[in-house]
Amino acid sequence: MNGSVRMGVDKIHLRLLKSLLLPLFILLCTTEGTHAYAEELPAQNVLVLHSYQKGFAWSDEQSAGIEERLKSAAALPVIYTEYMDWKRYPNQENLEHFYETIKFKYQNIRIDAVLTTDDAALSFAMKYRGEILDNAPIIFSGVNELGVAGIPDTHNITGVIEKIDPTRTIQMALEINPSVKKVYVVFDNSESGLSTGKMVMDQIDALNLGLEIFPMNRFSIEQIKATASALSPDSIVLMTTYYSDSTGRIVEFDRFSSELGKSSSVPVYHIYDFGLNHGAFGGSLISGRIQGQTSAELALRILQGESADNIPVVTDSNVRNVFDYNELQHFSVPLDKLPEGSEIINKPFSFYQTYKVLVLSIIAAFAVLLTFIFVLLFYVQLVKRIRSNLEKSNERFSLATYGADAVIWDVDMSTMIYYFSDSWYELLGYERDEVNETRGGWRDLLHPEDAEQEDRLRTQHLEGRSSYYYAEYRMRSKSGEYKWFQARGKVLRNADGGYIRFAGSMVDVTDRKGYESKLQMSYQELESTYEELTALQDELLEQYNKVVENQALLQTSEEKYRLLAYNDVLSGLPNRLSLSEELKKFIQEHSGGHAALFFLDIDNFKYINDSMGHTFGDELLVKVGERLLELSDGRSKHFRFGGDEFVILFKDVDGYSEVIRYADSLVQGFKEPFQLSASVVHISASIGIAQYPENGVNAEELLKNADIAMYKAKEAGKGIYVIYGREMQQHFDERMIIEMHLRNAISNNELSLHYQPLVDIGSNEIWGFEALIRWNNPVLGFVSPLSFIKIAEDCRLIVPIGEWVLRTACQFIKDLQSQGYAGYHISVNISVIQLMLDDFTNMVLTVLRDTGLAPEYLELEITESIFMESFEAISSKLEALKEKGIGIALDDFGTGYSSLSYLKQLPITTLKIDKSFIDSIDTPNNMSLASSIVTIGHDMGLNVTAEGVETPEQLAFLERTSCDKIQGYYISRPIPEKEVAGWVAGRRAG
Question: What stretch or stretches form a coiled coil here (predicted)?
Answer without folding.
Answer: 516-550
